[in-house]
Amino acid sequence: MRVKHKPWAKDRLEEFPAIYIKNPEDFKGRWQEVFGNNNPIHIEIGSGKGQFISGMAKANPEVNYIGIEMIESVLVSALDKAIEVDVPNLRLVARDAKLLEECFEKGEIAQIYLNFSDPWPKKRHTKRRLTNPTFLTIYERLLPTAGEIHFKTDNRSLFEYSLVAFSEYNMLLTFVSLDLHNSDYEGNIKTEYEEKFSAKGFPIYRLEAKFDRN
């Protein structure tokens, strides 16, 4: 997807320090101070325009949410959505997923969401996929023993790749759906991409997994 550059995006984000955390590294191990409570923290990696993370924050006030998007020109749309929803349990961060360990302490994140990540279909780009073992190693360090990864995509190849990657990493698959919208799963909050692709008749794939630390 080609993103329109918005040179004003950074300044716009910094106008709302109560939502946008400019220097997340400063709060490593101290994110509960940011939210002012001891509620569990869930993060979405690749938040896009923020529809999912804002919807989750509104639906679950007992959980703290952090939307992470590396492109500021995209994150500024998530900011607008967060302002519209106006909930105290949502923050936004502009960072590459490779740098998450600079922002969060070991075991500090209770749950990770990966929604409609770039499939990087070419074999030479496999290491860029957010379900690649390199990233799974990062997630394992961030999540506590009971922490989970929830993954959604419309891309069957990426989903199949992810199923294999998770299994070979000895993760436990606790939920798998090959057609989420025609399943009995309740409480699904759609992303912008999800609405777009499902409207065209594409099935939505979803899985939940956790690390087997026994």
Automatic annotation (TrEMBL):
Keyword tRNA processing in record: yes
Pathway the protein acts in: tRNA modification; N(7)-methylguanine-tRNA biosynthesis
Name of this chain's protein: tRNA (guanine-N(7)-)-methyltransferase
Catalyzed reactions per annotation: guanosine(46) in tRNA + S-adenosyl-L-methionine = N(7)-methylguanosine(46) in tRNA + S-adenosyl-L-homocysteine
Family: Belongs to the class I-like SAM-binding methyltransferase superfamily. TrmB family.
The organism of origin for this protein: Listeria swaminathanii
Highest rank taxon of the organism: Bacteria
UniProt enzyme class: transferase
Sites where the protein binds S-adenosyl-L-methionine: 44, 69, 96, 118
Residues noted as binding substrate in the record, renumbered to the chain: 122, 154, 191-194
Its EC number(s): 2.1.1.33
Coiled-coil regions listed: none
One annotated GO molecular function: tRNA (guanine(46)-N7)-methyltransferase activity
Role noted for this protein: Catalyzes the formation of N(7)-methylguanine at position 46 (m7G46) in tRNA.
Keyword entries, A-Z: Methyltransferase, S-adenosyl-L-methionine, Transferase, tRNA processing
